[in-house]
Amino acid sequence: MSSSDALPPSSSSPAKLTGSCHCGRVTLELPSKPTKINECRCSICYRYGALWAYYPRNEVLVTAKEPGLKSYLRDDPECSKDIGFYLCGHCGCLTHWWGLEGAGRGGESAKMGVNTRILGEKGIEGVERHIGYK
Q1: Does the global pTM surpass 0.85?
Q2: Residue 116 belongs to what domain range?
Q3: Is residue 85 domain-resident?
Q4: Where is the signal peptide (predicted)?
Q5: Which residues, in sequence order, are CB contacts of 11 under 8 Å at separation 6+?
Q6: Phi-psi category of 133—alpha, beta or left, where left has phi over 0 and alpha has psi -120 to 50?
Q7: Domain count, the chain
Q8: What is the pLDDT of residue 43?
Q9: Domain-embedded: residue 65
Q10: pLDDT value at position 3?
Q11: 88 in a structural domain
C-alpha cells in the first residue's frame, strides 16, 4: 500500500458493507464502501488477482466459521515478512491481508487490505481504481 492510498474516513453511518468468501464461511463487515480500489502489481498480489481497499484494522469485523482461516506469511526480500494473507480454510478464497505486529512499512500493523472481489460487482461499482505496486 503506498502512502497515496488514503484510508477512507471513519464512518458512524449504518451503511456498513459485508462481503464473504465463496462458501460464506468467512465474512468481513466493512465500515463503509471503499473510496478507492488498488490493483496491486507486486509479485504476490498480481498472482492473487486481488483488488484491495484499505481500512483501519480495528474498523473491520472478520468472522470465520469452521474450518476457519488459513494464512500465508509473506517471506521474500520484496516484503520482509510483515504481511499475512488470509484465505478461507474451506473454499480457499483470499479475503484480506494485514500487517503483523512490529511490521515496518509505515505502521502496516494498524492497517489491513480487504479483497474487494468478495463484495461482488455491485459492492464496488463506481469506485475509483488505481494500479500500483504496494
Answers
A1: no
A2: 17-132
A3: yes
A4: none
A5: 31, 32
A6: alpha
A7: 1
A8: 87
A9: yes
A10: 42
A11: yes
